[in-house]
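Convert to structure. Protein one:
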Amino acid sequence: MTRTDEKVRYAPESQRLTYTLEGGALSTQNVFRVLEGRWKLIIIFQLFGGQVRRFSELERAIPGVSQKMLIQQLRQLEVDGIVERIVHHQVPPKVEYRLTDWGAALCPAVDTLLQWAEGAPEALRARLISEAPDAGAARCAVP
């Protein structure tokens, strides 16, 4: 009989990798290289919840980012397999962006980071967390 994890192709918790001190540090550094950049996590957050956005929508949603920087960050995210670029062949051209399944899997990690920041000392918390009246709606909901 075939084991369930072989059928669905996932590794059970007991089969997770075990990191050495050096290997864990290097792996963490490599992961952060994929996410580094001033705008990448903001772009990712804008695409959470299965949203598909045009370039101009992302540009309006992220004040302060230049077109050049937004294009560079989106291309890097696409190369890294986090964002998918959808080109509609029409006139005028239409290009949309959405998270891949792997990119959408970042949602719980971002939520955990926000919860961690909420527990910061009060003086630091005010610099980290922007509290809006509808702060609950800002969570990255997965459809």
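Protein two, convert as well:
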Amino acid sequence: MTTQGSVAPEESTLRREFAIERYRYILQQIHTVNENVYRFLGIYQALATALTGGALALFVGYRRWNIEPSVARGGVIGLLSLTSVVAAFTIMLVLVGALSWLDYRNEECDVTDAMVGIDFRKRPRTGNLFRWYETYVILFIATSIIAMWTLAAIFVLSEMK
């Protein structure tokens, strides 16, 4: 018989096994979140290339295809706007992934604190933001969208009046 506040040996074993399984699950989720960033970046790159390629094709061929300049300009703006929406969605997915990663890492620290010892794993710090590759993926996407609109305004849209 156990006293109040003590844990039976079989309950202790059950808790340890549960903690180990939870820890494995958390590590798997962290791995998945890390992989998703590359998937999102790949999808963004493919869609951005296709959409901006379509805009450039429209710009190059609108005279040959007898399309009115105002219609072609609207088409280019529409394709570039769609590229911007894809970029915004990708940035949102990367940010949500980073927040999920923080949550899983904190949960990982909770499990190791309880099972191994306090501060076995240091908690993530948002001060390390510039060491996270998600930061640079977001900067890349934002920079590419700014460059796309700037170059389009200078070279493409000004020619289609």
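The longest helix spans residues 9-61. The mean pLDDT is 92.
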